[in-house]
Amino acid sequence: MDEPRQGPAGRWHGVIEAYRQYLPVSDETPVVTLLEGDTPLIRSRHIGPSLPGNIQLYFKYEGTNPTGSFKDRGMTMAISKAKEEGARITMCASTGNTSASAAAYSAAAGMQSVVLIPEGYVALGKLAQALAHGARAIQVAGNFDDCLKIVRDITDNYPVTLVNSLNPYRLEGQKTAAFEVCDALGRAPDFHVLPVGNAGNISAYWMGYKEYQQAGVTESVPHMLGWQAAGAAPLVLGKPVANPETLATAIRIGNPARWQEAAAAVEESGGLVRIVTDDEILAAYAQLASQEGIFAEPASGAGVAGVIKLAHEGFFGAEPVIVVCTVTGHGLKDPDRAVALAPEPEKAPPQTAAVVEMLALET
Ligand SMILES: *Cc1c(COP(=O)(O)O)cnc(C)c1O
Q1: Ligand 1, closest atom to CA 62?
Q2: Of 55-59, 115-119, 251-255, where does the model show the most confidence?
Q3: 2 pLDDT band (50/70/90 cuts)?
C-alpha cells in the first residue's frame, strides 16, 4: 500500500476551519486555534511487520499537536464556544494534558484558566505547561475523580465554564481525528485502537467515523478497540474503581465521565475494551520510541500494547487488515519516566581517540 496522504492541499488553519461543516460553529463563532490537528498518520515500520497475521499498522501521532496531545482538538472547540458565550474563566480537572491544553487555549483567548490536578500524580512536563500558560493550578489532595466532582459543583453554580470532556464541544473537536484518518487512508480503517481513561476519545472517534459514513465520505466504520490499564479498568470490570493505580497517569481514572458513550461505541462497532498491565504498557512505550522513532507518553503505550496482545492471540486473522492506533501524547510530557527507564549516558574524556575506542570504530 502507498504511504497515506497527508493533510489537505494548501495551508492548514486548524480543525475548525478544516471540518467546519461537521462542527457546531457558525460565522459568529470566534475561532480560537493554535493550528491543532493535521497530525501525521505514520506507517509502522517494525512493530506491525513483526506481528503475526497480515496487519497494516498505522500510528496516528497526536504528540505533534500544539500542546503535545490530542486534547487540543477538543479544546479549540470548547474555548471558541466559551468565547462566543462570553466566558471569562475556564475550569477543568485533569490528569495533566487537559490542563495543559485548557491553559494554552485560554491564554490565547484572553481568559483565565483554573486547573484542578490530583496531587503527586501529574507528570512534570504537563504541570509546567499549565503554569507557563498562566493557569491557576490547584493541587487537590485526592484523585482525578475527586477533582472532577469539585469542578462539576463549581461550574454548575458559578460563572465558570467547564472544559473537561463533559463539555460536549470537546468531543465534537476530537472527532476530527477520525476524519483525518479517513482522509489520509482514503477509507476507514478496519480497526481503531486507543487507550481509554475518561473515555472521551474513544467516544469522539466513534462519532467521527459514523458521521463520515453517514455523509457518504466512507463506506465502512472500524471496530473500536479500547485499552485500559490493569489498575484502572472500570469499563472492563463493569464498575468504578475507587483507587485507580497505573504509571500511565493520563489513564489513571476510576469512574470515566463518558462511560455510557464508550460502552456504546464498543458495542455498536463490534469492538472490545480490555486490560493491559503496566509492564506491557512500558514495553510498548519503549518499543515505539526505540523501533519506530515515535516518542510517546506511557498512556499511549496502552493502545500499542493492546495491538501486540491481540495480534499474538490471532485476533486479526490471516486476511489483510488496516489497523490504526492513536498515539495520544508526546513523550516529553513525562520526562521523569523516560529518564528513569533509560540507561545512564556513557562517559568519555574530551578526546576523539577515546570516543573512537569506545565505539570500536575502524577506518
Ligand atoms: C486524555 C488522554 C488519554 C485518555 O483519553 P480519554 O479521552 O480520557 O479516554 C490517553 N492518553 C493521553 C496522552 C491523554 O492525554
Answers
A1: 13
A2: 55-59
A3: very low
**Looking at residue 336, what is its pLDDT?**
85
If one residue of 193, 246, 285, 328 were mutated to test the ligand 1 pocket, choosing by the most ligand atoms within 8 A of its CB, it would be 328
Q: Which helix (H) or strand (E) holds 90?
A: strand 89-93
- Could you tell which of 251, 252, 285 is best to mutate to test the pocket of ligand 1, judged by most ligand atoms within 8 Å of the CB? 251
Burial state string for 186-213 with b = 16 or more CB within 10 A and e = fewer than 16:
eebbbbbbbbbbbbbbbbbbbbbbbbbe
Q: What is the pTM of this model?
A: 0.94
Please give the grid coordinates belonging to residue 270.
463490534
- Indicate if ligand 1 lies below 6 Å from the C-beta of 208: no
List CB contacts of 241: < 8 A, sequence separation 6 or more. Answer: 231, 232, 233, 234, 254, 255
Question: Where does residue 217 rank: exposed (0-12), middle (13-18), buried (19+ CB within 10 A)?
Answer: middle
Between the alpha carbon of residue 188 and those of residues 72, 146, 357, the distances in Å are: 23, 38, 52
User: What pairing do the DSSP bridges indicate for beta strands 54-61 and 41-43?
Assistant: antiparallel
329 lines ligand 1 (CB under 6 A): yes
Which grid cell sits at 115? 486547573
Residue 144, C-beta contacts closer than 8 angstroms, at least 6 positions apart? 93, 94, 95, 118, 121, 244, 252, 253, 254
Q: Is 153 exposed, middle or buried (0-12, 13-18, 19+ CB in 10 A)?
A: exposed
Cell of 204: 469522539
Nearest in space to 89 (alpha carbons), one of 69, 109, 66: 109
pLDDT single digits (tens) 136-176 = 999 999 988 899 999 999 999 999 999 998 999 999 999 99
Q: Please give the helix or strand (H or E) that residue 178 lies within, else none.
A: helix 176-185
Closest residue CA from atom 14 of ligand 1: 250
